[in-house]
């Protein structure tokens, strides 16, 4: 074959290539157009319903979609101001970033893109209820912003009065937790509804940022109550520290990143006022505070203490007790607290954080559910059973014989989350 013939064949091949590619692209477009014609149009149902009145200020824009997905939501008030918000992870609704104003009118425009690429927009206009007159459940978020917490810190919301069992799912849906990096968990309720805890199966990783929103303002709770307020906080998790206290040896072992850093002699509660055994979390730290037990059983004293770290609502602390240093490491003489020397208490205050795990073993009484932040005093399986909503598949408890709810307390309910000043 001469050179001129080879060049001619090469030119024909190069010229033909774009024609073949162009044919494929055109065919692809035609296939997409056919699919769009065949696919059913997207459909969406919205809540609140159009022209609805007396809608709670906690309302979300519910979106039930067929043959498509929500690709845009715009919510504006009656003055044309846009309300920020974001969709739930499961796509069932769009959540305003703050409670709506009472006695106002809002319009939601929802855009849905169908399976074939077609879009449609639906609107709903509704009016919110004025300020509710029903009694409110007081909620308290025990998770403060701009703090550094220990790796066992549960997110805790307390309720007064307790949330009725039939209303807990609705309340739990309005409790939002985001972690960065992601470390999913679930909520768990005490039996009496007075507290709900959030944690993951394992301790938080150091450096994790946790953002919490308890969006309860105006939320209908059962038939007779409403939520009281909106709570928000973002904080981070610090270094890993844990404390083990063994009544058999009367020794406290302090660990940092899993390594033992110090042993400290302790004196725990005497037989008439024993310390609790269980997994607790440091709740408060005070350089100086006053224990006033007048009017309490086995109380009647007032004493100032230094370097006190609360473990329970009932008044068990780790604290400086120079008066019992001769007993520390040998015998129990306190009113339920963990007594340590003044020097050890001062050192410990510089090591621990609110949210660090404290495990006490070998005493006469078990820790009662709800007496402190007791989220870690049960296994993950037991904890997850306390959720009022289905637990995500990857977090579900393993199947086994049912056992008591983590909030179940033999002989009565859990103590109200009102701090007692007792100690000793």
From TrEMBL:
Q: Which PROSITE patterns match?
A: LD_TPASE, PROKAR_LIPOPROTEIN
- What is one term from the GO cellular component aspect held by the record? extracellular region
Top-level taxon in the UniProt lineage: Bacteria
What keywords would UniProt list here?
Answer: Acyltransferase, Cell shape, Cell wall biogenesis/degradation, Peptidoglycan synthesis, Transferase
* Annotated GO MF terms: acyltransferase activity; peptidoglycan L,D-transpeptidase activity
Its GO biological process terms?
A: cell wall organization; peptidoglycan-protein cross-linking; regulation of cell shape
Bias (Low complexity) ranges: 110-125
Q: Where is this region: Disordered?
A: 77-132, 391-424
Q: Which InterPro entries match?
A: Big_10, LD-transpeptidase, LD_TPept_cat_dom, Transpep_catalytic_dom
Q: Where is the L,D-TPase catalytic domain?
A: 241-361
Query: Compositional bias (Basic and acidic residues) spans?
Result: 77-91
Catalytic residues as annotated in Swiss-Prot or TrEMBL: 319, 337
Q: In which pathway does it act?
A: Cell wall biogenesis; peptidoglycan biosynthesis
Q: Which PANTHER family does this chain map to?
A: L,D-TRANSPEPTIDASE, L,D-TRANSPEPTIDASE YCIB-RELATED
The name under which this protein is listed is: L,D-transpeptidase catalytic domain
